[in-house]
Amino acid sequence: RKATEFIIRCSLERMPLLFVQNSPGYMVGSEAEHRGIGKYGADMVRAVSNAQVPRFQLVVGPDNGAANYGMCGRAYRPHFLFSTMRARTSVMSGRSAAEVLLSL
After folding, report:
1. How many CB atoms lie within 10 A of CB 76?
2. DSSP 3-state assignment of 52?
3. pLDDT tens per residue, range 68-77
4. Is 13 helix (H, G, I), strand (E, B) or coil?
5. Listed residue (16, 3, 22) closest to 55, CA to CA
6. For residues 89 and 2, what is the distance between their CA atoms, to the nearest angstrom?
7. Backbone angles phi, psi at 41, to 5 degrees
């Protein structure tokens, strides 16, 4: 929620946003869903998509799943996107995929 509020405040104050991404993705599983990760993730994606300020993204590590959208991924056409050599973009990390399959 803090990130969403920060994005909204920056947009209101006309301050550019810099996203430094090293996110293995949002938490998955029934416990995370009961705690509201879907709602909070959707709120963050909505805040990024409605921000009317310049957005810059620096990917320094994993860039997985919905976190890619919450952190102004390529689909949101940031003004500048730079990826380091260690950056990896995917739908879901191998570890997360294995945990989901084992929990079914």
Report:
1. 18
2. coil
3. 777 887 788 8
4. coil
5. 16
6. 24
7. -65, -40
| CATH for the 2-103 domain, from 3.90.550.10, 3.30.830.10, 1.10.10.1100, 3.90.226.10 | 3.90.226.10
Tokens of 26: 């949002």
In whole angstroms, what is the distance from residue 8 CA to residue 52 CA?
Answer: 10
- pLDDT tens across 15-67, in order? 999 999 887 766 666 776 677 667 787 898 899 989 999 999 998 988 877 77
Give pLDDT, residue 66.
73
List 19's β-bridge partners, or say none: 57
C-alpha neighbours within 13 Å on the C-beta side of residue 63: 25
